[in-house]
């Protein structure tokens, strides 16, 4: 019993320290190590203002939510708007970002046409294979009900998984405590990165779905007995297998589960050990052979295998703050230069990591860890601030407000919700330590998982804001206890009780004045480049273009553009031009970026070999247009020219009009909170 009490205390202290560090970074130092991202955020005072307003609204709406018809109606309106938003984005806004996203989409296209040869990308990232196969299965299912656009199907798939993951968490907390479930659904509804991430095809939403399925199954297990409980434990294990096959970081969730089982109080030590061993046997009995089979299928050459120790090498790169690239320093270039085979790369990485740690010394290592914490955990957008579509058929203006140059309101709400979440965890830890409260099994499971992910990335691995996505729902679950404790606290003895609303409005106006002054003072004009149509994928191959032969591709431009870029390897040996809808030609081979007025309409892109020798022209191949590509090259099946249309314009870093609308929305939320 003493061991359990000590372990409980140590875990609470660890989670307290972690939540304290993250709260401090996200409140006062968001994005300090990545200052180029701050243009997409409002000043810190406005972030804090949004946090205060949203916190007050969530407390007012969340209190006795399940008992109030009026409050439930407001919640259903919020959720209805969220659902309509997802449906609208699914049908209108689809594209691909780049590495990983486009790679997986191209493989999806091949599998949809029953071509089971895996691209070299999967030798580098075999862990993405299961997510690709699951995506293909859904797209085939969608085609049976008439959804033929792959872009739409992918969006619907990822949004559905996100919603189901949230639902699993809600149902799990509902079994434990209805009040916790109420605060959870409110936080999840306002945490917009959960949904925006679904526009990019990657493993995270899929892994999150299986993780939250395992959480729900685990809660059912803890509330059942006999053979039924073991059935739910088996379901928990299978869910974690699928989660780890989708994203190997989820192996940390397995460790968290096993430790939680070992600390169970309702079973004897022998039974606990037996359960834990059974979970490990079942998990690795499925995971290991499946993982090995996948690697045998997708890895074609040994030297194409990606050395996993590279991520540790990045993690101790002080010059890049534990990231792949920063300030022109590319960690991959350092590894790849002069090291051809995988063994050479591994040897270089081993020696370099030792050298880096030695040069840093103990104090330097701790400073690096603190920088890494700021990189990964200070921005509540969890990576969506980096998102953009580089491959798409049409640019929708709503993208400006989601992750474009006008996304400050969305990002500020995300930052506020993120901060509320970590403050909730901080409060919960403080109260539980003071009152010596023992963690419930679900809290213990989620705490171990969150602590594990935090330590893994901070101490060993690469860091990126998007790596925090996979703990988003578990952290929201943990935060609900802190919110409940605050909501149930008796404020009647405090002096602020009588003038609470006046104080709240006064603080809000002060923060608004400070933030507005900061915004207007530093709101400079900048040049913004937006890809409105693109398919310039960098994984290209050579097309042998004979003398005098032309390649033609029909292009349907749906937005205005003023810049065109065509990838060519030898601009002086070939001619390339765009035939406009009015018949005029624009030469595009003489320089990389061609400036002209390009109105919406049908264009023909022509590349002609004007030399006397065969010329190599860059192209890329896809068996499907994936909802993002143009028509294939005339008479050349499944082959596309790499090019981009962009609109370059001069804009304010932060739109004053959008800022004023955002402030009015915050005022409306605060007013609604006063009325309910």
From TrEMBL:
Q: Transmembrane region positions?
A: 12-29, 41-61, 73-94, 141-168, 180-200, 230-263, 442-461, 467-487, 656-675
Q: Does the keyword Membrane apply?
A: yes
**Superkingdom of the source species:** Bacteria
- Whether Transmembrane counts among this entry's keywords is yes
Q: Which UniProt keywords apply?
A: Membrane, Transmembrane, Transmembrane helix
What name does the UniProt record give this protein? Glycosyltransferase RgtA/B/C/D-like domain-containing protein
Species this protein is from: Limosilactobacillus alvi
């Amino acid at each position: 019993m003493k061991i359990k009490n000590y372990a409980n205390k140590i875990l609470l202290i660890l989670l307290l320290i972690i939540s304290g560090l993250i709260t401090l970074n996200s409140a006062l130092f968001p994005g300090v190590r990545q200052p180029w991202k701050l243009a997409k955020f409002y000043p810190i005072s406005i972030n804090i203002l949004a946090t205060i307003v949203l916190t007050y609204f969530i407390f007012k709406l969340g209190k006795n939510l399940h008992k109030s018809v009026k409050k439930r109606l407001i919640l259903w309106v919020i959720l209805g708007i969220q659902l309509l938003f997802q449906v609208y984005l699914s049908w209108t806004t689809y594209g691909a970002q780049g590495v990983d996203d486009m790679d997986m989409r191209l493989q999806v296209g091949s599998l949809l046409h029953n071509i089971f040869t895996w691209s070299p990308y999967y030798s580098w990232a075999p862990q993405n294979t299961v997510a690709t196969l699951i995506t293909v299965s859904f797209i085939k299912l969608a085609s049976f009900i008439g959804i033929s656009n792959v872009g739409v199907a992918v969006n619907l798939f990822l949004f559905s998984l996100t919603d189901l993951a949230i639902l699993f968490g809600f149902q799990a907390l509902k079994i434990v405590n209805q009040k916790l479930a109420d605060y959870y659904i409110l936080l999840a509804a306002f945490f917009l990165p959960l949904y925006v991430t679904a526009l990019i095809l990657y493993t995270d939403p899929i892994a999150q779905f299986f993780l939250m399925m395992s959480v729900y199954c685990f809660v059912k297990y803890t509330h059942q007995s006999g053979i039924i409980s073991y059935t739910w434990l088996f379901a928990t294990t299978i869910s974690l297998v699928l989660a780890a096959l989708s994203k190997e970081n989820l192996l940390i969730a397995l460790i968290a589960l096993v430790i939680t089982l070992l600390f169970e109080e309702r079973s004897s030590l022998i039974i606990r050990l037996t359960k834990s061993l059974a979970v490990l046997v079942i998990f690795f009995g499925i995971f290991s052979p499946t993982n090995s089979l996948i690697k045998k299928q997708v890895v074609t050459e040994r030297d194409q295998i990606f050395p996993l120790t590279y991520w540790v090498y990045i993690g101790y790169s002080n010059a890049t703050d534990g990231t792949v690239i920063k300030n022109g320093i590319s960690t991959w270039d350092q590894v790849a230069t002069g090291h051809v085979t995988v063994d050479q790369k591994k040897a270089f990485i081993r020696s370099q990591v030792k050298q880096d740690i030695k040069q840093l010394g103990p104090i330097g290592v701790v400073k690096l860890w603190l920088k890494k914490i700021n990189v990964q955990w200070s921005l509540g957008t969890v990576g969506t601030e980096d998102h953009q579509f580089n491959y798409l058929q049409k640019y929708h203006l709503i993208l400006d407000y989601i992750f474009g140059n006008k996304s400050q309101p969305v990002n500020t709400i995300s930052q506020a919700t993120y901060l509320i979440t970590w403050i909730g965890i901080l409060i919960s830890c403080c109260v539980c330590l003071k009152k010596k409260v023992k963690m419930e099994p679900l809290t213990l499971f989620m705490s171990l998982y969150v602590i594990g992910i935090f330590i893994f990335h901070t101490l060993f691995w690469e860091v990126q804001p998007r790596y925090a996505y996979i703990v988003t729902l578990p952290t929201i679950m943990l935060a609900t206890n802190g919110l409940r404790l605050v909501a149930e606290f008796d404020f009647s003895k405090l002096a602020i009780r009588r003038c609470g609303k006046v104080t709240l409005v006064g603080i809000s106006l002060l923060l608004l004045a400070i933030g507005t002054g900061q915004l207007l003072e530093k709101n400079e004009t900048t040049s913004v480049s937006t890809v409105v149509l693109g398919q310039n994928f960098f994984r290209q191959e050579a097309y042998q273009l004979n003398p005098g032969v032309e390649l033609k591709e029909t292009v349907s431009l749906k937005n205005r553009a003023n810049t065109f870029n065509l990838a060519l390897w030898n601009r002086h040996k070939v001619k390339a031009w765009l035939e406009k809808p009015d018949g005029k030609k624009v030469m595009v081979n003489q320089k990389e970026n061609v400036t002209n007025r390009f109105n919406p309409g049908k264009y023909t892109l022509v590349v002609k070999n004007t030399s006397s020798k065969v010329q190599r022209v860059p192209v890329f191949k896809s068996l499907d247009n994936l909802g993002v590509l143009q028509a294939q090259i005339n008479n050349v099946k499944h082959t596309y020219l790499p090019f981009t249309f962009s609109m370059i314009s001069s804009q304010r870093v932060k739109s004053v009009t959008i800022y004023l609308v955002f402030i009015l929305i915050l005022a409306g939320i605060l007013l609604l909170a006063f009325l309910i």
